[in-house]
Design goal:
Blueprint lengths: L7 H45 L6 H22 L10 H8 L4 H50 L1
Length: 153
């Protein structure tokens, strides 16, 4: 496709919007990591408190709530684990390949790379969010079982 058909202002607008969308995506990754670490800490505190308040009369409910707390912790660890995310451009490759190219061509290529990075990272972020949701569900079920074991025991 001929690079002259792209209007420079349109290219600049698309470039800035796609770059902003990619930056928002990385902020979302940081936010999900923070949520996962908060869940891990909260579960640790709840387990510590629960062991001090252990109701000896109803060990089945108490064991069930501990199991759900551990499941919640595992899902949070899966969400928190380090994954590689794509963030273009790589500065060295950018300077080697595009330093002498036309501005429009470089902008168009950067836009294409940003879009590809966004799409590649989207699946990883959705997987991370799903693990956090599973962790929260397990945590709430564990809390309900803990409260039930306190009342029954």
């Amino acid at each position: 496709m001929n690079e002259d058909i792209y209007h420079p202002k349109t290219l600049e607008l698309i470039y800035s919007e796609v770059k902003d969308a990619l930056n928002i995506q990385f902020q979302s990754i940081d936010s999900l990591n923070t949520k996962a670490s908060i869940i891990i800490g909260f579960v640790g505190v709840i387990i510590g408190i629960s062991l001090n308040l252990y109701p000896y009369g109803n060990s089945y409910l108490f064991g069930s709530c501990m199991t759900f707390f551990l499941v919640s912790t595992f899902f949070s660890f899966f969400a928190y684990k380090t994954e590689s995310y794509r963030r273009d451009p790589e500065p060295r490759q950018l300077t080697k390949k595009y330093l002498r190219e036309d501005n429009k061509k470089v902008r168009k290529q950067l836009i294409d790379n940003f879009i590809q990075s966004y799409e590649d990272n989207k699946n990883r972020i959705e997987k991370k969010a799903r693990h956090i949701n599973y962790s929260l569900i397990s945590l709430f079920i564990g809390l309900i079982l803990l409260i039930l074991s306190m009342f029954v025991g």
